[in-house]
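Researcher: Next entry in the queue.
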Amino acid sequence: MTAATHSTLFPQVPESADAVLDGLDPEQREVALALAGPVCVLAGAGTGKTRAITHRIAYGVRAGILQPTTVLAVTFTNRAAGEMRGRLRQLGATGVQARTFHSAALRQLQYFWPKAVGGALPRLVERKVQLVAEAAARCGVRLDRNELRDATSEIEWAKVTQTVPADYPAAVAKTQRDAPRDPAELSQIYAMYEQLKRDRSVIDFEDVLLLTVGILQDRHDIAEHVRTQYQHFVVDEYQDVSPLQQRLLDLWLGDRDNLCVVGDASQTIYSFTGATPDHLLNFRTRHPNATVVKLVRDYRSTPQVVHLANGLLSQASGRAAEHRLELVSQREKGPEPSYTEYTDEPAEAEGTARRIRDLIAAGVPAGEIAVLYRVNSQSEVYEQALADAGVPYQLRGAERFFDRAEVREAGVALRGAARAGGNDSLLDGAEGLPSEVRAVLSTKGWTSKPPNGSGAVRDRWESLAALVRLAEDFEQAKPGATLSDLVAELDERAAAQHAPTVQGVTLASLHSAKGLEWDAAFLVGLTEGMMPIAYAKTDEQVEEERRLLYVGVTRARFHLSLSWALSRSPGGRGGRRPTRFLNGLRPGSTAFGARGGAGGGGGIDRGTGTATGSGGSGAARPRRRGPVLCRVCGKTLTEAGEMKLMRCEDCPSDMDEGLYERLRQWRADRAKEIGQPAYCVFTDKTLMAIAEAVPDTEGELVVIAGVGNRKLTRFGADVLDICAGRTLEPESGAGDDDM
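Model: Structure for this entry, 739 residues:
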C-alpha cells in the first residue's frame, strides 16, 4: 500500500466485469481492455499504473477471458506484490498469482528440483554477508561492516548481469562502474564465495533465478509444464528488469506474446543493481505489433509539483530522456514548491522539523509527511531534530508490518480474545469492536497517549496504534463487525502483506521512497556532491541522479519543500552549492544545457516559491549559478571528478606538493595499521584533490570525490590536522581492530 491513501479502506467488490471498468480514465480503460497480444504501458508518476493493470487483470478474470490460475503478475518488491494482491482481492479477482521475480522463481525451483536434479533443493542463504566475509578472509582481505556490504552488493550485481568471477574486472571497465575496491581483489572474493557455496551445498537469491533459468533451458518438458500453467504475464516496473530477469521472462513466455509490461524510463534509478530500461525502450522493436498506451494524467500531484517535475526532465539528456512523458496534473492548484537555503545541516534539520510541526498543527497528519534524503547516513540529524520538536517519525526500510514482533504478538492476543468471546475478562465493559481491540492491546503496550521520545518503545506503540486505527476503520466500514471478523481480515492482510499505515513522519532515502506518496515531502541536503552524488562521474550516472530527484519530487501530492545547507557543521565555511538540477527552476537561478521547453517549467520565474530559512540563515539567498569552469583554462567542466578538482584532468595542477607527500606518508602508515592496501584508505587521485583543495572543515572535506561520510568518520580528523599543519597524536590501544 502507498504511504497513505484517500480511498475507502474496505471498498465493495464490483458487481460485474463492466463495473470493474467504472472510474477508469480513457487511457486506463484502454489498458484494461487490451487483453490480447503484447501490450506496453508507459506510465508516468502518479498516473495510476497499478490501478490500470490490476483492473486489466480483474476485468479479464471477471469477464471469463482470463483464467485466474493462468495469470502471473510479477514485480520487484514484496510490498508492491502485496499491494497488487490486495487490490485484486478487492476487485474480486482471487486466484491470480502476484509475486516478485524471486518468489515466483523459488516456487518453481522447489517444485521442479526433485524431477530435474534429484534430492532436496539446497538450503537458501537469506543473508549472504557472513559467507562473503569468510570468502574475503580466505583471500587475505579484511573488510569492515560497510566494506562488506559493498562487496556483497558487487557480487549481486555481477550475478544479475550474468558476469562470472573471472570476467568481473573486464565488466567493471566496460561499464565504467565505480567499484568499491580493486576489481581484481573483488573477483577473487567473488570466486571464493561461489566455492564456499558449492562446498556447503547452499544457494543465494541470485542462484534462485540462475538455477530456474538453467532448468527451463535444459529441460524442455519442464518449460512446457510452466508455459501450460502460466499463459498470461504482467510485469510491473519494467524499467527495473535486469538481464537475468529478462532471460527468465523470455523462458516463461516461450514463443508466445501474451505479455503486458508497465514502466517509466524516467524512473530508472536502480542501475547499480543491474536494472536497465533498455528492455522497456526496445519493447516496440522486439514486438512490432505491440499496443502502446501512455498514461500522463497525474492524479497524485498539484500542477505546481508537476510543473517542477516536468521542468527537471526538460533539461535531461540521454536515451531515457528522449522517451520522457509530459505529465498533466488532474488536481486543483496548490502552493508553490519552496526553496530554502540554510547555513548548516543542523539548521536545515531544525528548520525542517519546525515546518513539519507547523504542518501537523495545521491539520496535515504526521503519516502524510516525509523527509527524503540521498543517503541513509543523513537521517540521524533529522531523527534528532524531529524528536527534539516532539514530532513522531518512522524510518523507512524496517521489517514489514506483519513481520514485526509486536504485531505478531497482538495477532495472537486478538485471536485468543475472539475465541473466548464473552468469557474473556479483558472485554468486560468494552462496547464495540474498537473498544475491544483497545482493551486487548493495552496488555501489549498500547496506551491512549504515545510514550515520550523515540526508539524501540515508540516504534512498538506506533505499530499497535496502527492496529487500533484499522479496527476503527473496519467497524465504520462494516457496522456490527465482530472481533472474529477483524482477526480474519488481519489474516488476509498478513497473507497479502496489505499493511495499515503507521502514523509518524517517514524518514527515507530517495531510493526507498520509490512507489510511495505523501501529502507533504521535504527533499533535503540538495547540494552538489550529494545530488548528484560525488561518485556519479559519467553522463549516464549524473542523469540517473537527476531521475532520482524527479522520483523524489513526484512523491509529493500537495506540499513540496526543497532545501540545502551551505556547510556541514555550524561555523563551517559556506562553500557548498545547491544542486545543478534546480538551475533555471528555483528562483533567481540560471538554466544551462537545457533541452528546450518540451518539459515545461524550465528556466521560468517561480514567483513566491521561496521560503525563509532558519538557524541564522535569514531569508533564502538564491544566487545566479552558471557552468563550472576550469580554473586553469576556462573550459566548461562536465565530468564529476574534474568538477571536484575545478580543473580539466590534463590541465596543470597547483596542489601543495609538500601536503601531498605528507598525506601519502600518513596513508602508508594508516594502511599498515589497519592491515589493508593503501588505496583502501584513499586513492592517489583523492589525495591529489585534498592537496589542491586544502580543506579546513569537515564540510569541505566530505564533498571531495572519494571521501564520503564513512571515510570522513574514519580518517577525517587526521586529514584535517595534516592540512592545518598540526602534528598528529600517536594512536593508542589496539588501533582499528574493531572496525
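Model: The CA atoms of residues 263 and 733 lie 55 Å apart.
Researcher: Noted, moving on.
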